[in-house]
Design goal:
Helix content: 10-25%
Largest sheet: none
Order of helices and strands: HH
Number of helices: 2
Shape: flat
């Protein structure tokens, strides 16, 4: 069976844990998985205002 190529930029590595509230962004992906960002809302017609980006 062939390997599945990831397109998320992790190269198969685990993502960092979600930082504590108020901590600096660390690229864990939690926010993008749970809420739509301003970029998506501005540039993707019909993107829902709640839910994953």
């Amino acid at each position: 069976m062939a390997a599945i190529i990831l397109i998320d930029g992790t190269n198969g590595e685990r993502l960092p844990a979600k930082p504590a509230h108020g901590s600096p962004y660390n690229g864990c992906g939690y926010c993008c998985a749970t809420q739509a960002c301003g970029v998506a809302l501005d540039h993707i017609p019909g993107h829902p205002t709640e839910g994953a980006c």
